[in-house]
Write a structure and sequence with these properties.
This protein is an alpha+beta fold. It contains nine helices and 21 strands.
Length: about 450
């Protein structure tokens, strides 16, 4: 009877560590291939790890609450063998398990990076190779499969470029076709390329303890890990790398509120949630087409030079306060969605975040972000830009206030639109034009009509 050790795999996006949240098995339990062993929390998401072996659980090598590095041993399984028909099963990620071979360097579960150091298993008979390939299908990590679904890309049509023959994120993006972009007569057409770079001159580059309490109970310490650790690092990096500039303006959003009310009453929107955030999201997409630099990104190059990437698509990030901390999932190619499609995407994004099921792929590749501070009763703010982006728009609370209309003071629904921008990428005139465009849509959403 052999004993195999399962090592913490790289579950995607190059993450280097994860916290053991909850063991789903105990010593002595019998497990089959793809049974969930443990739930882990990475810097971006909660992930269930399936077993690559069938056998009896031996020792749990990492206690719940401990942060372990990728490649660390976390559990042993006695009598462990890969089930002969494992290739027909599916993992907790919804992906088929990887083919089993006797090459240690490449023996990893589909959806896990090679950093996991998963032990090799018995070699399959040569005559079963083609059957295994057929059942497993295209080799790609779950985040790459999610991206392909979001972009409408058939993975079987993508040429893989990964070192182990897997399809990479860049392969999917390269294969994706430039989709039509929502626009009206006042909006310029999207360029043929999804992304362009503009050379620029670059400036000079710029283990958590367990919770403890003081003896008198007046103070406690909280370990910084998981989402909080990732968020703090990202915000410090952004605040001290990108020179932030913030602007804001008050807006009469009465017609936006009227539109939201009509949409809620419409049979076409009966099964989706409609809120003012929907109109703000549509306004940001529209305004970004008119001022493309807000949707760009500053890129430092190894030789000391820099480029500005101008994205001709919008992966719209929505800052979400969740029990796990601040997450910023994004809606891929949001410019392609009509009003109802965008409403459905916003609802799905919100529910997924609240349930703690946001994946690293959901948070990767954002181009511009909205933070809805209005839900907390705030009027305006100066938010920090999400790393890899150049703009973040803050939507304040909408409340009735006295407003001058045609020379008369009337009660109107008023809000404040504010935003922060990377001054390396966009200047004050572009920033002001962008915020003014968002405000104009909130004042008169009929401008969005095709």
């Amino acid at each position: 009877m052999s004993t195999q050790t399962f090592h913490l795999p790289d579950v995607g996006e190059g993450l280097t560590e994860a916290e053991i949240v909850q063991w789903r098995v105990a010593p002595g339990d019998e497990v089959a291939v793809n049974d969930v062993l443990v739930e882990i929390e990475t810097a971006k998401s909660l992930v269930e790890l399936p077993s690559p072996f069938a056998g009896t659980v031996g020792e749990l090598l990492a206690p719940e609450g401990e942060t372990v590095t990728v490649g660390a041993a976390i559990i042993t399984i006695a009598g462990a063998v890969a089930e002969p028909d494992a290739s027909s099963g599916h993992s907790a990620h919804g992906e088929p398990p990887a083919p089993v071979d006797d090459e240690p360097a490449g023996a990893v579960l589909v959806g896990y990076g090679t950093g996991g150091q998963v032990s090799s298993r018995r070699k399959r008979p040569a005559e079963r190779t083609e059957a295994v390939k057929a059942s497993v299908g295209v080799v790609a990590k779950p985040p790459v499969r999610k991206l392909a679904r979001d972009l409408g890309v058939d993975l079987t049509q993508v040429s893989p470029s990964g070192p182990a023959g897997e399809v990479t994120r860049d392969d999917v993006v390269a294969h994706a076709q430039q989709a039509s972009v929502f626009r009206n007569l006042a909006t310029p057409a999207a360029p043929a390329e999804r992304e362009q770079t503009i050379p620029v001159t670059a400036p000079a580059p710029a283990a958590a303890p367990a919770p403890t309490h003081s003896t008198d109970g007046r103070e406690e310490t909280i370990p910084v890990k998981g989402v909080r650790k990732a968020t703090s690092s990202a915000m410090v990096r952004s605040a001290y790398t990108a020179p932030h500039v913030s602007v804001w303006t008050d807006v009469d959003a009465t017609r936006t509120m009227e539109l939201v009310k009509r949409l809620k009453a419409s049979p076409d929107f009966a099964d989706v949630k409609v809120s003012p955030l929907l109109i703000v999201a549509r306004a940001v997409i529209w305004a970004a087409r008119r001022t493309p630099m807000v949707n760009g990104a500053w890129i430092d190059k190894p030789d000391g030079s820099a480029e500005i990437a101008v994205r001709n698509y919008v992966n719209l990030g929505i800052a979400a306060a969740t029990p796990r901390g601040l997450l910023v999932p994004n809606i891929k190619d949001a410019q392609d969605l009509n009003m109802r499609g965008l409403a459905s995407a916003l609802e799905k994004l919100t529910l997924t975040a609240r349930e703690g099921k946001t994946t690293p792929a959901d948070q990767h590749g954002g181009t511009i972000t909205i933070t809805n501070i209005g839900v907390f009763g705030m009027d305006a703010g100066t938010p920090i830009i999400n790393p890899g982006e150049s703009a973040i728009v803050a939507m304040g609370t909408i409340r009735q206030k006295p407003w001058v209309v045609d020379g008369e003071v009337r009660p109107r629904f008023v809000t404040t639109v504010s935003g922060s921008f990377d001054h390396r990428v966009i200047d004050g005139d572009g920033v002001s034009r962008f915020i003014a465009d968002v405000a104009s849509i909130l004042e008169e959403p009929a401008l969005l009509l095709d």
